[in-house]
Design goal:
Blueprint lengths: L54 E10 L19 E12 L4 E14 L2 E17 L13 E12 L2 E12 L2 E11 L2 E14 L4 E15 L2 E8 L2 E7 L3 E8 L4 E7 L9 H4 L2 E16 L2 E14 L2 H7 L7 E14 L2 E14 L19 E11 L1
Antiparallel strand pairs: 1-2, 1-18, 2-3, 3-4, 4-5, 5-8, 6-7, 7-10, 8-9, 9-14, 10-11, 11-12, 12-13, 14-15, 15-16, 16-17, 17-18
Length: about 375
């Protein structure tokens, strides 16, 4: 995103481009989780770049639909609205000192797919410190390498996810088919640390390299759904401790099930397959170029994820865990005034939103992350 550094009386104009996240849900639809826009992290964050400014605000609107999907990244055979994504974000940054700034953001988004729609709220806070290198004045770059350290926390929450599906599980010689699932109050929380190396190549061109590691915790209150096996159809609830179900046979007779969550009759343990911890490693490169009132920047980020028991469950059922994602971000901006910037940003993800919303990845949704996705952002940044 766009943020500024400032001296007393002057300011370190570039600010770190880190956003609160534009993502989509895979627990239910198999799309969407590194923090959003980490591909643009910089030792000299570079949006408005106005002189004598301490604060910056950014408003953004994200969209993916059939009218903007010129790269055909939405799902094959999608209807008019299936695969659509819309998001609204508000972000701000404060240059506490010439070398230290704080930022935060909030994003509300909605994703619509064939079998469901869902709403997610993403939050993010971060602090970044310029450890080594000169403090460049606006539009005057000191030609020497820079090193910045960044710490951030971010997460996602949703009231619930609903999905119609045909997910089959075999357990003790019996085949079970989950026809629908509801995840109650899913959420994830991340702690992340990044090292950013910057090189002001010229007064107009700045290049950065990024390396980082993050810790993720994914949880939810419970899962409910309909499960069919043999001649029975069950309404099941999977909690942290127990699995309970009210079942009806085709002949009309009924029966109930209550078992411990681990190793239950249905063969799904949510404590291992939907509640888990993970580590994320990331590396990337980006560049920013200014020419008069124009701003252009682009970045490429690679993420690798290491999860706990989820991957074992996926492999045990014959699936292939998805452990990496590549994100390409391109942006063009124009300054109508010295303290404002309008921009258009595009993002393409090789495995949908994997890595940006960790709570959307679990043993049920893992197979849905093998497709690309992309969206556009129209935004306005203001400096004060």
């Amino acid at each position: 995103m766009s943020f500024l550094h400032r001296r007393a009386g002057s300011f370190l104009r570039h600010a770190s481009p880190v956003l609160g996240a534009c993502t989509a849900l895979a627990l239910l639809c198999g799309t969407a989780e590194a923090a959003p826009l980490d591909a643009l992290l910089s030792t000299q964050p570079t949006h408005v770049g106005a002189r004598d400014s301490t604060f910056e605000l950014e408003l953004g609107y994200d969209v993916a639909n059939d009218r903007v999907d010129f790269l055909k990244l939405r799902p094959d055979g999608a209807s008019t609205t299936s695969g659509d994504y819309y998001g609204r974000s508000l972000r701000g940054a404060w240059a506490v000192t010439p070398r230290l700034y704080l930022e935060g953001g909030l994003t509300k988004r909605r994703l619509v797919f064939k079998s469901f729609d869902a709403d997610v709220t993403t939050w993010q806070v971060a602090g970044q410190y310029l450890l080594l290198g000169a403090e460049p004045e606006p539009y005057e770059s000191a030609r020497q390498p820079q090193l910045a350290l960044r710490a951030s926390a971010w997460g996602d929450t949703a009231p619930g996810f609903d999905r119609e599906l045909n997910f089959k599980v075999s357990n003790a010689g019996t085949d079970y088919t989950f026809r629908s699932l509801h995840a109650d109050k899913p959420r994830d929380t991340q702690l992340q640390f990044d090292v950013i190396g910057g090189w002001p190549v010229t007064a107009n061109l700045h290049v950065n390299g990024i390396a980082g590691i993050g810790y993720s915790r994914v949880t939810l209150s419970g899962v409910s759904g309909t499960v069919a096996y043999g001649n029975s159809l069950c309404n099941a609830q999977l909690s942290q401790d127990y699995v309970t179900a009210d079942c009806t046979n085709k002949n009309g007779s009924t029966f109930s099930i209550k078992e411990p969550s681990g190793g239950n009759q249905f063969g799904v343990d949510i404590n291992k397959e939907a509640r888990y911890h993970a580590l994320t490693y990331q590396a990337g490169i980006n560049a920013t170029w200014r020419s008069g009132d124009w701003l252009f920047r682009g970045g490429l980020l690679h993420m690798t994820h290491r999860r706990s028991d989820v991957e074992d469950a996926v492999k045990a059922r014959g699936g292939a865990p998805v452990r990496s994602n590549q994100v390409l971000v391109l942006e063009a901006g124009y300054k109508p005034t010295d303290k404002s910037l309008v921009f258009l940003r595009g993002q393409v993800l090789s495995h949908q939103f994997l890595g940006e919303i960790p709570m959307t990845y679990n043993s049920v949704s893992a197979g849905q992350f093998d497709k690309r996705y992309g969206f556009l952002t129209l935004g306005l940044a203001l400096a004060f």
